[in-house]
Amino acid sequence: MSHEVMEQAKPLSWPPVTESSALSAVPSAARDAVLKFYFGPMDCGKSTLALQMNYNHGRQGRRGLVLTKHDRSGGPKVTSRIGLGLEAIEVDDSLDLVRLVTATRDRIDYLICDEACFYTVEQIEQLADLVDEHGVDVYAFGLASDFRSVMFPAAQRLFELADEVCRLQVEVLCWCGRPGQLNARVVGGAMVRTGEQVMIGDTDASLVRYQVLCRRHHRAGRLGEGSAQQAV
Ligand SMILES: [Zn+2]
Questions:
Q1: How far is ligand 1, taken at its centre, from the CA of residue 218, in Å?
Q2: How far from chain centre, in Å, is Cα 155?
């Protein structure tokens, strides 16, 4: 049987399934854009993955924007602890992300949103609008929970809305050797459980630092041996 005949025969031999059947062929052009959220404690490689993903998409000829908020560099950049870095758009609370993308002269295919836990909930809604109404793929990266192990509002909204949520676990260990899951805020050498939800630490001049602990030791408030010497 020639190819041509097969092509023509197809509709006749196709089972008369309903349009909504999972078996019905979906045109590839109908692929929906996606909203994905990658989360994990600090040092788990979120920013590194964000930069890698931007590089990969760029190589495929896709156009994207890289956004961040409160990056560790203190500037509008995505930087990773292993030394990679890229200029980025700083997201302040008043920035309308839909307007940002639609006002860009070139068609934008995807967004890389680093530190998305610090965005406003409204901005997470805007990301979903970009996916659903503008066909933009959104890859968001960030912490899930704060130093009290309470979810950031933006992270919670991402959990609720994302097509896919992925926990990143890249060899971040608690002092006890268990996987690190939660960030503890350490002020003057002691773990604290009250205070502002967002407080940027870990810079040289800061009295505040963060330490990754397993759930058990976060709940028990144990920073481990030798942490008194590490503390500022
Ligand atoms: Zn532990």
A1: 7
A2: 9
